[in-house]
TrEMBL record:
The lineage of its organism: Eukaryota, Metazoa, Chordata, Craniata, Vertebrata. InterPro entries: TMEM106, TMEM106_C, TMEM106_N. GO terms for cellular component: endomembrane system. Pfam families: TMEM106, TMEM106_N. Residues 19-34 have a biased composition (Basic and acidic residues). The keyword Ubl conjugation does not apply. This is Transmembrane protein 106A. Belongs to the TMEM106 family. It comes from Anguilla anguilla. Residues 20-79 form the Transmembrane protein 106 N-terminal domain. The chain crosses the membrane at residues 80-101. It is found in: Endomembrane system.
Length: 243
């Protein structure tokens, strides 16, 4: 056979045929390693085990990969919902603060309702009935207690009264409370002044010092008030009269 250059396909040598199968095996292994969806790789899938389905009971243990272009990652009107929620929370907080914010509880003396005067040989006994106005500006009920009151003539204490449970004031309302004050005048000069018939008017100037505790919104508050009254001590009577 003459020697010449062959223009056809070159026959593979035995060494090349031994190398090619090894390359094909590497390509198959690489496809399996990178999770190919071919039938050969599906048989080695650790999740579905070649069935193409996720076993029951493993839904909460697996993680799904969602593309960034998926519409589920782009919910509509998110900013609107967030703004509405924030405004609603602020509105509810403002309402709570408005109704639960502590407001003023005030005391106001109305007038002297009546007075009883009793002449004794050495002293003068008087029972005064006073009217007190308690105003509650809160949106909750207020409990008034521990009323402590003392009456002074100049610097001398002539009467004291203590009341443990006073009253309950409903929200946003006023309540009139009536209380009595016993007074004993033992000073000889005041006795002569009140019992004297040479004076037509026997007026005493009384100084009332009052403290009272109120409970509301889980805390206590002490109120204090000073007021003055004019009382006629020259009428020895057991019937009430307006001073």
């Amino acid at each position: 056979m003459p020697m010449g250059v062959s223009m056809g396909h070159r026959q593979k040598t035995q060494e090349e045929e031994d190398i090619l199968p090894r390359d094909s095996e590497k390509r198959k292994l690489s496809r399996k390693d990178y999770g190919s969806t071919s039938n050969d790789s599906c048989s080695d899938c650790p999740t579905c085990h070649g069935t193409g389905r996720i076993p029951r009971g493993q839904e909460g243990q697996l993680v799904a990969v969602i593309p960034c272009s998926d519409q589920r990652l782009k919910p509509q009107r998110t900013k609107l919902y967030v703004c509405v929620s924030v405004v609603l929370c602020l509105f509810i907080c403002a309402l709570i603060l408005f109704f639960l914010f502590p407001r003023t509880v005030s005391l106001l003396p109305v007038a002297l309702k009546s007075s009883y005067v009793f002449f004794l040989p050495t002293t003068i006994q008087m029972n005064l009935t006073n009217v007190l106005n308690i105003t509650n500006e809160n949106f909750l009920a207020v409990q008034a207690c521990d009323l402590d009151l003392q009456v002074l003539i100049w610097d001398t204490i002539v009467g004291k009264v203590k009341i443990a449970n006073v009253t309950t004031i409903t929200p946003r309302s006023q309540k009139v409370y009536t209380y009595e004050i016993p007074i004993t005048i033992a000073d000889q000069g005041l006795n002569n002044y009140c019992k004297s018939t040479s004076f037509r008017i026997h007026t005493l100037f009384l100084h009332l010092q009052m403290t009272m505790k109120v409970f509301y919104l889980g805390h206590a508050e002490q109120l204090s008030m000073d007021t003055f009254q004019y009382v006629d001590c020259g009428n020895n009577s057991t019937t009430p009269h307006i001073a």
